Amino acid sequence: MRKAFPGVVALDGVDFDLRPGEVHVLLGENGAGKSTLIKTLSGAHRPDAGTIEVDGEPVEIRSAEDAARLGIATIYQEFNLVPELTVAENLFLGRPPRRFGLVDRRRMDADAAALLERVGVDARPGQRMGDLGIARAQMVEIARALSLDARVLIMDEPTAVLTTGEVDRLFEIVAGLRDQGVAVVFITHHLEEIPRIGDRVTVLRDGASVGEVPAGTPEDELVRLMVGRSIEQQYPRERTEPGDVLLDVRDLGRAGVFDGVSFQVRAGEVVGLAGLVGAGRTEVARAVFGADPYDTGTVTVAGTRLRGGDVAAALGAGLGLVPEDRKGQGLVLGADVRENLGLVTLGRATRAGLVDRKGQEERAAGMAERLNVRMSGLRQEAGTLSGGNQQKVVIGKWLLAGARVLVLDEPTRGVDVGAKVEIYRLVNDLTASGHAVLMISSDLPEVLGMSDRVLVMARGRLAGELAAGEATQDSVMALAVTGGSDAVKGS
Ligand SMILES: Nc1ncnc2c1ncn2[C@@H]1O[C@H](COP(=O)(O)OP(=O)(O)OP(=O)(O)O)[C@@H](O)[C@H]1O
Ligand SMILES: [Mg+2]
């Protein structure tokens, strides 16, 4: 398979085969060509050259309809759901059940409820899709693919936005389908998932297949195949002696969402915020940043008390937020990489009153290089970058912005192993120079490996705090699940 885009060869002669009853993992760095490969199988991209055979017969897959006719269903890395429609409407988009020529809403809602039940997601058929949040949206996307009864199911980073419990549920479903003879393509950057769910692994590097290995292959070997070198230390946290309190959150509450949330982050500290999806972590982060209002409590940044719901004031006080929804809130998709990297610094990047374009360009280029952003150049539109490279640009933007207090919401979601380590090093640089970092992450090894203290949230409340030394995956999960008796949100 071959496919080129302007300025970049995405697929440079990839060979790939898939058998019934297997989960075939597709592994590779950000920009290696994984999504492009599966898009040639789902009809989203026409390859420049190469052949596709199904059951030994050559086929042409020109559209999503062609793929559907061949029994190929795809869960994309970017959601294809329509936020304005209901969950049920999304599940049956383009193929609603009909009665006497009219859409049979009763049946649609009943069928939708059954599908939601099957994947075990807490969502109602009549709920607006846009209100679900991204973890539950992903589960809906999975439910939709399942409803197509495909022979080939392609999943592009389905676990990137899920937490432990949902991943377990997803793996049960995938294993069940595999046992029924469905052929599954599974893309993930979480190496520990591979032996749990995979059978074979094909590794892509720079648009070419560099090897096919069994799923039980040791992680360091997979990393070597993927990035061409080994990675010594996955979590290179360098602690700094904590200084003054830079972020002081007191008794923050929002009716029905979170309550009584108090914590501090000092200069030089990385404080992790762990918990299950829906525990209220993102909601607290958005309230602290002023993106959402709150009813009670105060937020103080470096001694300045912020007004609720005022992002401009938060930015002015030196607070930055890397949002979990990078596409919706983090990036200007139509702008190029240089512009995106410069977005927050723009106001300050002046020399003698003029915008310092040269300096801006240099800083953007330096950051792109450090994070190994795969692109045809700084002029590539952010919207056409691979998923992980988009995430790197959002992070890079905030690291360049020089915020004194940086809130990172799922910073390394979808980022490959090599770039993760580079992001952690940049976090070290920040804390070494007196910045404070609050890191929300569902990736427990990351929280444990990079935080100095871990706060655990459960159902809208802080359930407890653990020092880095004493926190383990089990102790964090125990707090996250039990959470204490007085949770705000009904569970
Ligand atoms: N529509 C497009 N226009 C221009 N370049 C593109 C387009 N789609 C993909 N590319 C480029 O093709 C290369 C491969 O991208 P692809 O999305 O396949 O990577 P990936 O392996 O899925 O990475 P990730 O792990 O980050 O999702 C990248 O260099 C990307 O910038
Ligand atoms: Mg991708």
From TrEMBL:
Concerning SUPFAM superfamilies, the annotation shows: P-loop containing nucleoside triphosphate hydrolases
What residue stretches are annotated with the ABC transporter domain?
1-231, 240-484
Q: Which SMART domains match?
A: AAA
Superkingdom, taxonomy of origin: Bacteria
The GO molecular function terms of this record are: ATP binding
Entry protein name: Sugar ABC transporter ATP-binding protein
Keyword annotations? ATP-binding, Nucleotide-binding, Repeat, Transport
A Pfam family of the record is ABC_tran
